[in-house]
From TrEMBL, chains A, B:
UniProt xrefs under PANTHER family: CATABOLITE REPRESSOR_ACTIVATOR, LACI-RELATED TRANSCRIPTIONAL REPRESSOR
Domain of life the protein comes from: Bacteria
Pfam families: LacI, Peripla_BP_1
Domain (HTH lacI-type) ranges: 7-64
Name this protein carries in UniProt: LacI family DNA-binding transcriptional regulator
UniProt keyword annotations, A-Z: DNA-binding, Repressor, Transcription, Transcription regulation
Coiled-coil stretches noted in the UniProt entry, renumbered to this chain: none
UniProt source species: Iodobacter ciconiae
SUPFAM superfamilies assigned: lambda repressor-like DNA-binding domains, Periplasmic binding protein-like I
SMART domains: HTH_LACI
Alphabetized GO MF terms: DNA-binding transcription factor activity; transcription cis-regulatory region binding
Amino acid sequence: MSQFIRLTMDDIARLANVSKTTASLVLNGRSAEYRIAESTKERVLAIAREHHFQPSQSAKTLRSRKSGTLGLLVPELSNFAHASLAQALEPLCREAGYQLLVMSSNEQASMETAGIEHLLTRQVDGLIVVPCSSDATQYLKWSLRLPLVFVDRHIKDCPIPFVVTDAIDAVTSLVVQAIAAGSREVVYFGGQADLSPSQDRLAGYRKGLELSGMTEQEHWVWQRDYLRPSGYSMMAECYERLGHYPDSLFTGSLTLLEGALAYINEKQNGSPAHLMTFDDHNLLNCLPWGIQSVVQDSQRLASESLVRVLKLMQGETVDSAWISASLHQRP
Amino acid sequence: MSQFIRLTMDDIARLANVSKTTASLVLNGRSAEYRIAESTKERVLAIAREHHFQPSQSAKTLRSRKSGTLGLLVPELSNFAHASLAQALEPLCREAGYQLLVMSSNEQASMETAGIEHLLTRQVDGLIVVPCSSDATQYLKWSLRLPLVFVDRHIKDCPIPFVVTDAIDAVTSLVVQAIAAGSREVVYFGGQADLSPSQDRLAGYRKGLELSGMTEQEHWVWQRDYLRPSGYSMMAECYERLGHYPDSLFTGSLTLLEGALAYINEKQNGSPAHLMTFDDHNLLNCLPWGIQSVVQDSQRLASESLVRVLKLMQGETVDSAWISASLHQRP
DNA sequence: TTGTAAGCGTTATCAG
DNA sequence: CTGATAACGCTTACAA
């Protein structure tokens, strides 16, 4: 492709009648530091502007051994929570002088592995991952090779720092509220039981029951995965088991809620009085039920995880963080 | 950061007792081509595997003048349509041997400019953009510097190839259906009138009216932007002007629909009998109205735009494409 | 205040 | 079949 040509710093230097060094110094804003003559500086800058000079990032990276990129690996970009995270993280990275590389693992451990290896090849300076496996050893190996932070999910007993939503408290208060409002039967639909968010959400649910002096009954807790059809089938089976809809239903994700509502709409045989879900979406405002939802703070999830990779990159050690969520209450 | 070390190809070569050249050949799968001894090959590969050798992408890029990356610039990652596009594009790029760099412009022309310049610095080999300005000259300049394809939106009279949804036909049939079902008043809410998708959607609406022998009345077409509050205010003003809800309402985006529904839910004074919207979401299944929606084919939008940048990168000229959308009908 | 020269890790050319 | 050696475009001691 010679159709698209680029000028190099050498070219700029030649055109401005200075050496590579001078050009480099000026173009990197270090002219003051080296007391480059104002006139020289202006000349170089003018030429550079005029010719749309773009320094080669690869040469910089090669020389400086820093790529100026950070990687973000999420299971699904079409998952609203993860998309919001990427959306929030991208400008923050740019401000911090880094380019964000976003990849998705499609919720498959194998693709995740490939993705991380790929990002390593690309020499990302740091990595933020929403892990989709719970195999700590694998991640530990990577964490020896580059700064690694988990976000949204963490792995039990794994020393890699993480930034996750404090689901427990949020879910607890939701459950407590529902019971205070008169619910006597509170059912929980969740996803993969081995994922940390699932565990946290379930723990929150159980704590809510406990605080309200209620004892968990058989067929109150259902766990499968976060796919829509699972929401549908759990609702179907739950209805069949109980013989009616529970007073209250908490779903661990929007997709599960969608599945459950699909069943409810299809059967037209009633519905739970209280609906609660993890994660929020504006369309929830438009539903005929007043759904209570837990809103994750993707802005803070993003900034806190960025701060942590940046610190790791400077050799500091960092702690993990629980980001509190807020509730979106609907009448 | 000496904490995280990497082996270079030189190291591998030394450990395997071969030269850089041989190591390079083997590691790039060109051993057959150069008839490298099987034993040598195995030795090199074994060492490389054992030491987790990661070739430096920057060195490769520098030498080969190809970065192996493609850029995707979207206005908003939290917009479902754009997120789906990114999600669909990313694996395709990887299959094609490219790493996708996703950036978002926040729907601001200035950020878009900065983003493109940034990607140029990163030496992306090609660029796929959802343009957020309609200034053709600017984009034309860039298209001289690297292969550029528009997706989702195009710019009138701009020779840059684009891949967009064929909104006209889809919207037309939606409108025709609504009228066939008895609607006598069909209102249109749209976003920025200067964006091509807006124009197409409006054109589809008008064609639908025309085909049904209906004449557009005053206060039937409302255009502002695609933000949620605009949907709310257009609904409010429309209701006030007409004195009632129209039989049918078409919204140009989910956000506008959300806004309109927020008004409707808040006032509890009725609602349009037919609701239609551009773009689809699973939560639409859960609404108490049977909303008809236009489903964009993000998979094809992604693959067709990728094909086009790849062709441009090989110096071929390419045409634009309209991707047909499907309808998601709900009872 | 500016220039010279030595790499960074690869790939490519050309000899053995 | 394998090995020197020269770029690629940039940064940075070290000179001048």
